Amino acid sequence: MNVRESGTQPVILEQDVVVARQTVRKLALQCRMSLVNQTKLITAASELARNAVIYGGGGDMDWEFLEDGARNGLRLVFRDTGPGIPDMKQAMTDGWTSGNGLGLGLSGARRLVDAFDIDSGPGRGTRITITKWA
Amino acid sequence: MGEFLLVTIQVDMHDQLALTLQDDLAERIRKTSARGVLIDISALEIVDSFIGRMISTISGLSTIMDARTVLVGMQPAVAITLVELGLTLPGVATALNVERGMALLRDRVRET
Predict the structure, then answer these.
(1) Å from A43 to nearest chain B CA?
(2) What is the pLDDT of residues A101-121, one digit of tens each?
(3) Which of A49, A64, A112, B97 has the highest Cβ tally under 10 A?
(4) Which of A50, A104, A107, A110 to mutate to test binding with chain B, by most B CBs within 10 Å of its CB?
């Protein structure tokens, strides 16, 4: 698997969530992703970018354009240096929220992508990696 | 639109803007004594949990303000994504397009 191109952008303010969505849409188009897969990936990115802003106190989104044989894909990393997630099992449960959201962000985002990895703990921030193949 | 309000969402809204829309709409329902609200999201390329919650809230608040809300124009890819996300918008009336949404609103308002 090769990384053909990569980049990073901040997700600190609410408006950055909109910009993150726009970036992911542009990249997904370059990847020739189907409309449904584009929509799923942008929606997942929107959830994770918002989490980074609201719960993580802001962070960054890294993106990588992947090539694996004949297929293309996108890998996105959302990382923040916030308080981290103390109880991962609980955080991944549908309907559970530590804030005032619907509690679908993490669990829902995981269902929308092909690969989902989360690394978080108290005091060390949160790092979520998602991959979607075209 | 007579006794109905038509809200067409045409931009990718940041969260605060979505909340402002929610508040403005409640105020509009009061001012115009509207009996129904039609929300057209045909231009929206994604609906995430935040926008989904806004739609549910508008639907709920319009009901307690004696108006009915119908959501119209959801793109198929958005619908597929919403279901997978786990957001099925319970209690929100939907119609395929504005025309059918208007017909549904008329029926609903007549029932009350």
Answers:
(1) 6
(2) 667 789 999 999 999 999 999
(3) A49
(4) A104
